[in-house]
Amino acid sequence: PTAGAMAQEPMLLLAVTEHVANSATFTYFMAGALRRRISSHMFPQQFPIQLRTKSMRLLCAPQLQERYPDQPMELELWARQQSLVSCHPHALHRTLFGSAEAFVVLPNATRVPAFLLNIDANVTGKPRITRNRLGGTVKLTGGCLPCPVPQVKRLENLLKFGLWLFGVPWANSECCPHPVP
């Protein structure tokens, strides 16, 4: 920026290096802070797919419904290795390496393991300033499960949809808009 531009309007200069960002993700990963439990009661009742064995029958595991008829389920999500951040002009890219383990929750509150999936995703974040507010958007740019089985492909599509429906809006609400002093 030139001295004239700085004198005419306020400016925020923010510099983040890949080293700083990757050090932060390493710290969160090593501290075990990248873990989340999702339970069936977190979904709105009107949502078309519920976290229950009945819904999993259609997606990937018909035997769950036979063995545990219409029981609630929980998902444990966690980072299985440190995510990687790369800085590019106008955007930050992050590669996430996660795992998801599903459990059937029995009436006595016992959790029975159902399946485990490894999930990799690429996310792009773009910062922006609007009316003296610092914000940004997050976009899922890719993701995959390392298994080509047709039932798992349906589950992969559901997880991508869930990340797009819940994860990306959550990330966007967390990062934008915050007032700029």
Task: Produce the secondary structure layout.
Elements: H1 3-8, H2 18-31, E1 35-39, H3 53-59, H4 62-67, E2 73-79, E3 84-88, E4 91-105, E5 111-130, E6 133-144, H5 150-175, E7 178-179
Antiparallel strand pairs: 1-2, 2-4, 3-4, 4-5, 5-6, 6-7
Count of distinct structural domains = 1
- What is the number of helical segments per DSSP (H or I, 4+ residues)? 5
N-end to C-end Cα span: 20 Å
Percent strand: 35-45%
Radius of gyration over C-alpha positions, nearest whole angstrom: 20 Å
Q: Architecture in CATH?
A: Super Roll
Give me the strand/helix succession: HHEHHEEEEEHE
What would you call the shape? elongated
What is the gist of this entry?
The protein has 181 residues and is α+β, with helices and mostly antiparallel strands.
Task: Give your account of this protein's structure.
It is a single chain. By secondary structure, this protein is an alpha+beta fold. The chain has a single domain, classed as Bactericidal permeability-increasing protein, domain 2 (Super Roll). Helix content is 33%, strand content 36%. The protein is built from 5 helices and 7 strands. Strands 1, 2, 3, 4, 5, 6 and 7 form a 7-stranded antiparallel beta sheet that branches. The longest helix has 26 residues. The radius of gyration is 20 Å and the shape is elongated. It starts with a helix and ends with a strand. InterPro entries: Bactericidal_perm-incr_a/b_dom (IPR017943), BPI/LBP/Plunc (IPR032942), Lipid-bd_serum_glycop_C (IPR001124). Keywords: Antibiotic, Antimicrobial, Disulfide bond, Glycoprotein, Immunity, Innate immunity, Membrane, Secreted, Signal, Transmembrane, Transmembrane helix. Monomer. Homodimer; disulfide-linked.
